[in-house]
Description:
Layout: E1 3-6, E2 9-12, H1 22-33, E3 39-42, H2 49-58, E4 63-67, H3 71-84, E5 90-93, H4 100-103, E6 108-114, H5 129-142, E7 143-153, H6 158-172, E8 179-184, E9 195-201
Parallel strand pairs: 3-4, 3-6, 4-5, 6-7
Antiparallel strand pairs: 1-2, 7-9, 8-9
The structure holds S-adenosylmethionine.
Amino acid sequence: MPTGKCGECEVHMDERYELRNARYLAADAIQRLVQPGDTVVDATMGNGGDTLFLCRLVGEKGHVYAIDIQMDAMKRTKERLDAEGLGERVSFSLQGHQHLREIVKTPVQAVMFNLGWLPGGNHECTTHVETTIEALRQATEMILPGGMVSVCVYPGHDEGTRELSAVESFCSELPVNRYTVLANRFVNARQGTPQLFLIQKNRIQPPE
Ligand SMILES: C[S@@+](CC[C@H](N)C(=O)[O-])C[C@H]1O[C@@H](n2cnc3c(N)ncnc32)[C@H](O)[C@@H]1O
C-alpha cells in the first residue's frame, strides 16, 4: 500500500479515510494519481513537506521541481530532503511560480499549490492573486491528460480571501470538455478554514 506524508498531514492508505483538512485531501488525491517515474511540481515549497511527499511518490526514476521565492524555504527543504537522502530527485528553483513554464520545460503529471505564507516565516511574503492565477493558468496547460493540479487556499487573511475568490472564478471558467474541477469546502467549519480545489485535465482532450 502506498504511504506518503504531506507536511504535517500524513496519508496512510491502510488507515481509514478521514475528512481531516484540505491538505490531507489534496495529498490523498495526488497520492492516488502519481506513480513512480512521474515528473511533478511543488509550486510552493515552503518547509518542504509537500516536496518530500512528492519525492517519495515519484521514486528514484521520477523527478520533482520545487519552487519558492524565499531562500529560507529552499534551505529548509534541502536540509529535509538531504536528511532523507532524496535531494537528487529534486530541481530547486528560487523564482516565482508565475514563471513555471520557463522553469519546467516538460509536461508534468501533477502540480501542488499550497498558498499563503511560509509557516514560521514572514507573513508579508505570501502568495498573491495575480501571480497565483498566472501560475495556475500555466500549470493547467502543462499537465498531461489525466494530470492534476491541487490548490489549497487559506481564506483566513485578506490576500487569502482574494485568492479564494479568484481561484474559484478561474476554476469555474475552465472548459468542461477539457477539465474536471472539484471544490472541497468544509461547510460547517469556522470562517477562514482552508479550502481545496482539484483540477484534472480530462484524459480525452478535444481536437485543438
Ligand atoms: C504555505 S507555504 C507552502 C508550504 C509547503 N508546501 C510545505 O509543505 O511546507 C507557501 C509558500 O509559498 C511561497 N510563495 C509565495 N509567493 C510565491 C511565488 N510567487 N512563487 C512561488 N512560491 C511563492 C512562500 O514563500 C511560502 O514558502
